[in-house]
Amino acid sequence: MTEIIIRPKTGWNLFKVDEIFRYRELLYIFTWRDIKVRYKQTFFGISWVIFQPLMTMGIFSFFFGKLAKLSSGSLPYPLFSLCGLVYWTFFSTSLTHASDSMITNESIIKKVYFPKILLPLSAVMTGLLDFAINFILLLLFAFYNGFSPGLNILLIIPLGIILVLVTSFGLGLFLSSINVKYRDVRYILPFFIQMILFVTPVIYPLAIVTERNRLIMALNPLTLVMELTRYAFSRDYKIYPELFGVSILSSVLILLCGLWYFRKTEQFFADIV
C-alpha cells in the first residue's frame, strides 16, 4: 500500500511544474468540463463567441470611430478595435472564470485532495478555445478589408497569448483566493474589469497618450499585446520600444504575487469555502 504524505508548500516553492504534470489528466478533465458546461443548453452554442466581439466592434466603431472620430492610423477603425477586442475578450473571460473557480468547485475542494491551482489554471486554459475562434475571425476580417499580417505575426501571436495567460492567471489566483473568504469579489469584479478596459488601448491608440502616461499604461501587459497585434496588420503603426520591458516585467510580477498569495492561503480553502 502506497503512503502519500501531503505537506503545505513552504518558502518560494510557488509553482511546482512536476505536480501539475502529475495531475495533467485532471487538468484536462477540468478544462474539458468547463468548455462543455459553458455552451451546454445554449441555443446558439459556440456562436456566442463570435457574436460578442462583433457586436462590441460595431458599437465601438459607431461611437468612437464615426462620432468621436478617434484616430486608428492606417487601419480602418473596425479592424483597429477588433485587434484589441480579440485579446480583451480572452483576458476578461479568463479572469472572470478563474476568479470564481474556487466557489464553483467548493464541493470538490471539500471532498478530495488535488492541487487547487488546477482550478484557476483550467479556467484560464478554457479561454484558449474562444481566443482561437476569435483570432480566425480577426484574420478573415483583416483579409476582407485588404490587410494581411506580416510574418512577424508568427512571433506576436505566441507572445500575446503568453502575456494574456500569465496576467489573467496571476490576477485569477489572487482574486480566487480572496473570493473564498470575501464573496464581494464577484460583485466588484465586473466594475474592476470595466475600469481596466478604459486604461487599456482597446478603443484608442497609444499614440494619443503622452510619453509619461505611456510608461504608466505599459504596466498593463495588455497594452503591449494590443499594440503589437495592430502593428502586425499595419507596418505604419508605431510601436514604442519601452513597452516591451515594462509590460513583460509587469506580467511576471503579477503572476508571482498571485502565486504567493494563493500558496499562502490555499491551506484554509477547504475550511472556509
What does this structure look like?
With 273 residues, this protein is mainly alpha-helical. It has one domain (44-272). Helix content is 71%, strand content 0%. It is built from 13 helices and no strands. The protein is globular, with a radius of gyration of 20 Å.
| Inertia-based shape | globular
Please give the largest β-sheet. Answer: none
- Work out the helicity level: over 70%
Q: Catalogue the unreliable spans.
A: none
The residue-averaged pLDDT reads 86
> Could you say which structural class the secondary elements and strand pairing correspond to?
mainly alpha
* Beta-strand fraction estimate: under 5%
Total count of strands: 0
Order of helices and strands: HHHHHHHHHHHHH
Count of folded domains = 1
Q: What is the CA-atom radius of gyration, in angstroms?
A: 20 Å
Q: How large is the count of helical segments?
A: 13
Whole-Å distance between the termini?
Answer: 32 Å
Explain the layout of strands and helices:
Layout: H1 17-22, H2 24-39, H3 47-67, H4 77-99, H5 101-104, H6 106-111, H7 118-144, H8 153-181, H9 185-198, H10 211-217, H11 221-233, H12 242-265, H13 269-272
